Amino acid sequence: MSTNTTTPASQPRKAKKQRKTGRRHPLASVALIAIGLLFTGAGYAALSTNSATAQSDATSQQTITEGEKLFAANCATCHGLDLEGSSEAPSLIGVGAASVDFQVGTGRMPMQMQGPQAQKKPVQFTEEQTAALAAYVASLAPGPAIPTGEVLDGAGDAANGAELFRINCAMCHNVAGAGGALTEGKFAPAIKNVSAAHIYEAMVTGPQNMPVFNDMNVSAEGKRDIITYLKYVENNPSPGGLALGSLGPVAEGLFIWIFGLGTIVALTVWITAKSN
Fold first, then answer.
1. Is residue 177 assigned to a domain?
2. Does residue 113 lie in a domain region?
3. Does 198 belong to an annotated binding site?
4. Weakest mean pLDDT among 20-34, 92-106, 140-154
5. What is d(CA 191, CA 174) in angstroms, rounded to the nearest whole number?
6. Residue 173 counted as an annotated binding residue
7. Is residue 117 part of a domain?
8. What does pTM read for this prediction?
């Protein structure tokens, strides 16, 4: 006959042990909350991103549509409704937003009158209208974009920029950026008080008679250095005194010939008159 060895005192301990084994870990609730927050945050971020993208696309399309209207009313007469150009104006297909921003943002376009080249004049459009025109032209064919970021900060190497400018630009624009005459009534304009963005855009688009300096000719860092040099020259007066328009030795020689030699002649006449 078998006997039951389990004592009454051991039974509560066994039941208590079984109940303890079935209890959840204290951190389980925290983990569940964290997982819930993670999935909720991810879903909200995805929805917000999609909403922002859709809003940005809508804004971009609205800007392009506004630019198309402005182009049809102000530019299509010469450049054509399809930007294909005419006998009076070049094609704009592939010129990019940078070219439009430069030409319109400096007042060269719309052109006031036909001539050897477009003259700089007061700007005809607001910044928003200029951006809309640029966006419309860029939407039809790829081209150089409007520059942004550190290439415009003027914090590059001014010494390297001066060397690059002398090699690539000074033969037309003068070593101090004072501009100079070209052939057939054309000219290289002065680069004083020109924004960094417009200087960069001129280099990458080659307006008027200017060649295009892509990144194979002058790197983006090199363009930044050139802008830094030009801004340094603009913000620092001539260390030699009267700059005479910074037009170089011809202007300096002419000044000496007229005023220096004239002074000597006048002094000679005065001394001769006194001696008599």
1. no
2. yes
3. no
4. 20-34
5. 10
6. yes
7. yes
8. 0.69
